[in-house]
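Figure 6 in text form: structure in, sequence out.
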């Protein structure tokens, strides 16, 4: 008997990012290995055409790609830049989503998590524990915050990898730093310093489940792997896992990296990263994170296709 095979059309997935990004490459290889067609889209080359609603980005060979060419777009890079550049890139994502393209993580999640203030405010207002935080544009208010909070952690609102984060304990040093930030027209994002024993936890949540976690130990209080901390596998207690899952739920994240710090026995959500890397975590885990994430992405696209058909 002749066997009848029905070939499924390949899924076309765009990844916002460049081949230089190691996670972009990992994800592209894994998705391709699972049978998808993957196109990398450079986030700095997004080009929008109006009134054509569909043509939005140049493909690898420079020819325009339309959203009809894609089943989904996975955001793996949203580089920093001027206010105009960052807002434009986020608004392209909103537009594509409005036009019906599935975006993972969705445009709103990316917008919420590029801005540390917005993330912490959403989490705090939903009742999750975050460090006492004072955010202001005003030098006098910033100096007052130092009086109020004592030792403060000063963070760039748009930042990652621990870059540019400093601990300030002396009002004279605060004065020097705050005047310099004022010259650059920066926002003051100031947090109480929570003694953390030089360690914290990174939990990776995919589709509402913690799929992996690590404890990061540093030489200093700043525990980013990029700052030289070491990672070890960590199985979170229920309270900590629930906090990460709640974070993902409140932010409506497909997947998210959640930093949790324990100070004086109390857990705090320090950060939610909407474009989290996983190479540090992968180095201490057996399960294949890129594989889990890719399966999740393909599953979500299928659900979306079924919903729309
Ligand atoms: N309020 C705080 N008190 C003590 N340590 C902190 C505080 N905020 C951040 N840290 C430390 O600094 C690291 C980087 O902070 P985070 O807000 O996650 O910024 P980034 O986006 O650069 O990773 C955290 O992982 C933690 O080790
Ligand atoms: Mg962090």
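Output sequence:
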């Amino acid at each position: 008997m002749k066997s009848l095979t029905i070939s499924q059309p390949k899924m076309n997935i765009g990844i916002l990012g460049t081949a230089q990004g190691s996670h972009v490459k990992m994800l592209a290889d894994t998705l391709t290995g699972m049978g998808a067609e993957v196109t990398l889209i450079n986030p700095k080359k997004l080009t929008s055409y109006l009134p054509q609603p569909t043509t939005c980005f140049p493909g690898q060979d420079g020819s325009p790609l339309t959203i009809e060419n894609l089943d989904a777009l996975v955001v793996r890079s949203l580089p920093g830049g001027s206010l105009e550049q960052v807002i434009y890139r986020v608004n392209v994502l909103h537009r594509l989503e409005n036009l019906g393209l599935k975006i993972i993580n969705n445009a709103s999640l990316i917008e919420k998590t590029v801005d540390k203030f917005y993330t912490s405010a959403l989490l705090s207002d939903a009742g999750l524990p975050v460090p006492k935080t004072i955010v202001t544009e005003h030098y006098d208010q910033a100096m007052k915050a130092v009086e109020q909070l004592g030792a403060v952690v000063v963070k760039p609102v748009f930042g990652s990898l621990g870059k540019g984060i400093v601990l300030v304990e002396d009002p004279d040093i605060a004065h020097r730093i705050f005047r310099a930030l004022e010259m650059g027209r920066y926002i003051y994002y100031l947090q109480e310093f929570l003694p953390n024993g030089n360690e914290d936890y990174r939990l990776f949540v995919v589709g509402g489940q913690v799929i992996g976690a690590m404890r990061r130990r540093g030489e200093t209080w700043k525990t980013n792997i990029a700052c030289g901390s070491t990672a070890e596998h960590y199985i979170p207690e229920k309270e900590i896992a629930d906090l990460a899952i709640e974070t993902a739920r409140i932010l409506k994240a497909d997947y998210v990296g959640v930093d949790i710090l324990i100070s004086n026995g109390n857990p705090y959500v320090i950060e939610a990263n909407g474009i989290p890397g996983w190479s540090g975590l992968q180095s201490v885990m057996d399960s294949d994170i890129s594989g889990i994430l890719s399966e999740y992405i393909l599953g979500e696209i299928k659900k979306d296709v079924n919903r729309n058909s």
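Caption detail: The chain is about 35% helix and 25% strand.
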